[in-house]
Design goal:
This protein is an all-alpha fold. It has helices at about 1-5, 15-35, 65-70, 75-100, 105-120, 120-130, 135-150, 155-180, 185-210, 220-280. The chain contains ten helices and no strands. The model is unreliable at about 1-15 and about 40-60 (pLDDT under 50).
């Protein structure tokens, strides 16, 4: 029966591959259609296929904020994909971790379970876990079922406590992947977003120096576009990286809090055997 409880561990959550693919479609579509439409002077010159890969014609210039964003070049939609991915995965993690916590606040739940354990009311503790649901309740349910098994064994109380601790550790190991899912992706984007922004910055500076290096007077249009591309990519990259760092830190903290609650109640279950040993 304990195996059935352990198998309740939810891997849950949305696959990052589909999230990234969807965000890429949205980002490139927005960049090509919306931003491209604002990067021309005349309506007759509008083209949804102008990605800014080549040199801008002098007739092309931003007519609004989206057009300015279009001047950032082909790196901008890549960074936008990473930015949208962080936002989408953050929403997904918020929903998943809320389910992992269960139906109510964890702190009152943990306190009620500890009181029930101190009174030796195992049935009540089991009922509280059943009502709470979520990852913490799943782990504690597995521990309580294991408690019933080891309590009837002819072994020392220290050995019983050790078996309970092992059961909690195994159950937590099953639940943890579901809670930490997609967090490595967010951690990767915290670095990759900044690097992609830096890559776009370098491309923009190359364009700027190329305009300055030609014979005669510098091509002011190409110079301005190159500088604009560099700064836009820098801003987008830093913003994406910063958001990813904040998101990763926050959700990692939530997972750690949930794990701490499990450890707290697990210790309380082990203490019941210690109290029996002392004759309390």
């Amino acid at each position: 029966m304990e195996n059935q409880v352990q198998k309740k561990a939810k891997k849950g959550g949305l696959s990052a591959m589909w999230v990234i693919l969807g965000c890429a479609i949205i980002a490139f579509g927005f960049f090509i259609i919306i931003c491209g439409d604002g990067a021309v002077k005349d309506a007759q010159l509008r083209s949804p296929f102008n990605l800014g890969l080549g040199n801008f014609d002098e007739k092309f210039h931003p007519t609004n904020l989206f057009g300015t964003l279009h001047q950032g070049g082909f790196v901008i939609p890549i960074v936008m994909t990473l930015l949208l991915t962080v936002i989408a995965l953050s929403v997904e993690r918020t929903i998943a971790l809320r389910k992992a916590k269960g139906k109510g606040n964890l702190e009152p739940f943990v306190e009620k379970v500890k009181v029930a354990l101190e009174k030796g009311e195992m049935d009540k503790a089991y009922q509280l876990c059943k009502e709470q649901e979520g990852s913490v309740a799943n782990v504690l349910t597995a521990a309580l079922l294991r408690y019933e098994d080891v309590d009837s064994r002819n072994i020392t109380n220290d050995e019983k406590a050790e078996l309970i601790a092992k059961e909690i550790e195994d159950a937590t190991t099953l639940e943890l992947p579901g809670m930490e899912k997609n967090l490595p992706i967010i951690a990767t984007i915290s670095t990759l977003g900044t690097l992609m922004g830096l890559f776009g910055t370098v491309l923009g500076m190359i364009r700027s120096f190329s305009a300055m290096g030609q014979e005669g007077a510098p091509d002011t249009v190409k110079l301005a576009i190159g500088i604009s591309e560099a700064l836009l990519n820098t801003a987008m990259g830093i913003g994406t990286g910063a958001l990813a760092i904040v998101a990763y830190g926050y959700y990692s903290g939530v997972v750690q809090d949930i794990t701490n609650f499990v450890d707290e109640v697990g210790f309380a279950i082990g203490q019941t055997f210690t109290k029996k040993k002392l004759g309390k």
